[in-house]
Amino acid sequence: MTNRQVKTLKGTGTRQKISLGDGLVLRVSPDAASKVFVWSFRRNGRTSKQESITLGAFPALTLDAARAKAQAARQTLREGGEPGAVEKTAEREAADGPTFGELVDYFLRKKVAPALRPDRDLDADDKLLAVNTAKAHQGRARKYLGPLRDIAATALRFRDIGDLCDPIAIANGPQAANQVHLLISNIFKTAIKNDRGVEMNPCAGRELPAPLSGESDRKLSNKEIKTLHRIFTTAEQIYLNHIKHNLNRLGGGKVQGRHAQNYRDMADLIWLELLLGNRGGELQSMRWSDLEDTDAGVVFVIPKYRNKSRKRGHRIPLSRQAVAILEARGLSHPARRWHDTYVFPNPTGTGPLVKPAKTQATLFESAGLTGDTKATRHALRHTFATRMGQLDVDEVLIGRMLNHAPSESAKTTRRYNHHQYDAQKRAALQQWADHLYGEILQIGPRRLRVA
User: Which of 55, 29, 50 has the alpha carbon at shortest distance from 40?
Assistant: First the structure.
């Protein structure tokens, strides 16, 4: 392949990975607007996990320059070094104190490892990181921070972090780059707080490296909500059509019944997100024991150790329509209500629904919510909040239902005001559910049927 061929590559509507030999890969976005060179390698032959480093984006990095960088990284790996490591300057050679890699290892020991202890007391350890956050930090540190590890922490500059994050934004999206930036900042904050030989955070006072595209502000129109409802009522058939197409393309195979169940589960999950305004992870990790019966109705109680803020629990009174969805999943079954099992389990029942993003993407694609009008699951929360505002629900109450962290002034008030606002939340959620089914969908308040 030549530079001219790389330049004239057209988008195919899907992400392309073009092998250029010796581990060098060209990643092309669906619309061909982004073309990034990546080098893939294994540290100990075929028995080790495949890793990759981002070399740069075309045309700023030409094909010949990418081959040269891949060759240099390969040589560094042979000599026992870290591929893609930032070049050491005289200033960095003269710098003393711990390396950035030592700060990373300290952060993983101090903040991440305790959160992943099997014997952690979930109710008592409210100062620990959430398990999912700890796992995300661990994964990002291993995947992205290698090139900076050998640099003295005191010699690390913000431009070095930008040089690391810019290719990540191109290859993996702006959110991934911003998360790496925030992780590096947290590593320095932890080191400074615990007197680990550094006094300055190079990320302090700096803007995030990659501005978000604005997709997070996406909300659904009445027409799109109707389309989603129609798609989700036939979720199982969508799975069958999708998988049969792939099996025919691959020359045959077997349709898995459990995978069809995943589509039914995801349909219920997404509809509950639209009804209740919850984050997807909060509903995904719902257990039967989290559902509390009260005189006014059923309340979904999120314990503080599973709450994003980690400061308090969160209560969501369920509308009749939300209860109907859970009733169809076994809400009234007495054996389930007293067990700590998942409402949306994985195939073994030991964890929440597996790979929900892929299932959701297929369903959203079937609803026409991809391409230029792409919507994510977070668009459901934007839709929920916007429609609540249109129904004249108080903005403070909307924030409470969305489980947003309060402002500084509101934090002080909450220290004194322990009222949970269950009645107000229930009235607002029921008002929205009735409006959704009656005014938008123009159907009776029945559960979403997907079978």
Answer: 50
Report CA dihedral (13, 18, 24, 28) to the nearest 10 degrees. Answer: -20
Mean pLDDT confidence for 224-237 = 76
Residue 322 tokens read as 């939300």
Report how far residue 242's alpha carbon sits from residue 262's, in angstroms, rounded to the nearest whole number.
Answer: 13
pLDDT tens digits, one per residue of 388-430: 999 999 988 998 898 887 765 666 676 777 788 899 999 999 9
Q: Which of 108, 114, 85, 115 is nearest to 183 (CA)?
A: 108
User: Is the same domain home to 324 and 418?
Assistant: yes
Q: Kindly state whether residues 250 and 388 are assigned to the same domain.
A: yes
Which token pair is 46?
């075929």
This prediction has a pTM of: 0.64
Looking at the structure, tell me whether residues 251 and 308 fall in a common domain: yes
Which CATH number do you get for residue 128?
1.10.150.130
Note the pLDDT of residue 342: 87
182-207 average pLDDT score: 89
What's 308's domain CATH number?
A: 1.10.443.10
